[in-house]
Design a protein that fits this description.
With 358 residues, this protein is mainly α. It is 76% helix and 0% strand. It contains 15 helices and no strands. It has helices at 2-11, 13-31, 36-49, 51-76, 84-101, 108-137, 141-161, 194-212, 214-224, 226-231, 236-263, 274-284, 289-313, 318-335, 341-357. α5 (84-101) packs across α12 and α8 runs antiparallel to α13 (289-313). It is globular. It starts with a helix and ends with a helix.
Length: 358
């Protein structure tokens, strides 16, 4: 019975992390001279119970979810994709170019599909470089993907300042994408676009792939023990590259959806750090693509409800950033603990044997 309780408590470690962050955050709210209950009520009701607030939450959820998936899949193979931000920028660039320069005779629905595929391809290609270096030269993928991210952000910036910049624009951005090549909105009078539903669909598909397919099981084996995977005849290098490509494609979609679903132009430095926020989503979700939907929705709700919270109770929006930091801290603390019933069971016979000898 106690083992079941411990197992359940361990499985809900992300929930404990959020609750602990909210409790500590309540102390910060008190120090700011506000009522924590009123503050949290304004924050969450504004993010999830208000129609327009919910639309804003869903819009923010899409890039967070995809950026989280960009971290989860490689990490299930034991690899850290820290370069999601760069893959988001390259995906947005590919998607923008496709949306602007695909021939006019292509029907709008097909043009949207091709644009989405182009964005995914851009992110995957940018992820391919650190993946090949890791698979065939053993170069640390954390360093290379992070450095590649900086290269991507500034390379896209150069392109937006020159070739892709709209003539006469007051600051760097591309031409506007035609309305028929933008993602349709599914919540009237909000900006909630079809990309949100596609992001959730991607999470569901990846959850099935990781759970049910040979590819997903092979990636899991590589992540748990590359040596065993090698002796089992699995193509470890191929799986490393594949997991990174999937992650890069997800990040590329995040950038593409931001352009053709929300902003309708490619802006310089358009991302507020979705790549890094995806790392929070991944660990908060326990590396589960399915739970990543809930994790992204929660973090998006914090961000979209921050403004309403400030207007309602006067608590500054930086309180939300503090909450996010506390969640990261408590999730990291939770990772320090492991529930291993097998180890306890394995120890029991040994202890019994020692007792008999005594």
């Amino acid at each position: 019975m106690s083992g079941t309780v411990l197992r359940l408590a361990y499985m809900l470690k992300s929930v404990w992390a959020i609750l602990a962050a909210l409790v500590v955050g309540a102390g910060l709210v008190l120090l700011a001279g506000a009522n924590p209950i009123d503050t949290y009520a304004a924050l969450f009701s504004g993010a999830f119970l208000d129609y327009y607030g919910l639309g804003s939450t869903l819009v923010r959820m899409s890039p967070l979810l995809l950026a989280g998936l960009a971290v989860i899949v490689p990490l299930r193979a034991g690899l850290f994709n820290i370069g999601g931000e760069g893959q988001i920028y390259i995906g947005a660039l590919f998607g923008t170019v496709a949306a602007l320069y695909l021939p006019d005779f292509i029907p709008a629905p097909l043009a949207i599909v091709l644009t989405i595929l182009a964005g995914a391809l851009g992110g995957a290609l940018w992820a391919l470089i650190p993946a090949l270096l890791r698979a065939y030269r053993g170069v640390n993928e954390i360093i290379t993907s992070l450095l590649m991210s900086h290269v991507a952000i500034y390379a896209v910036g150069v392109i937006i300042h020159s070739w892709l910049m709209e003539p006469g624009a007051p600051y760097p951005y591309s031409r506007e994408i035609a309305a028929e090549r933008a993602l349709p909105v599914f919540m009237p009078q909000t900006q909630a676009h079809l990309g949100i539903l596609l992001s959730v669909a991607a999470a569901l598909v990846l959850a099935l792939v990781m759970k049910r397919s040979t590819l997903g099981q092979s990636i899991e084996i590589v992540g748990h023990n590359p040596t065993v995977a090698t002796y089992s005849g699995l193509g470890v290098r191929r799986l490393i590259v594949t997991s990174f490509l999937i992650g890069g494609a997800m990040a590329g979609l995040a950038g593409t959806f931001e352009v053709i679903g929300l902003k309708y132009r490619l802006f310089d430095h358009f991302s507020p750090g979705y790549g890094l926020q995806g790392i929070i989503v991944a660990f908060l979700a326990g590396l589960s693509p399915l739970f990543a939907v809930l994790a992204a929705l929660f973090l998006a709700g914090l961000q979209s409800g921050a403004g309403i919270m400030q207007r309602a109770v006067g608590v500054d929006t930086t309180m939300v950033e503090a909450l996010q930091g506390l969640i990261v801290l408590f999730v990291a603390v939770g990772l320090a603990f492991r529930y291993r019933p097998g180890r306890r069971a394995a120890k029991a016979p040994a202890v019994a044997a020692q007792a008999e000898k005594a």
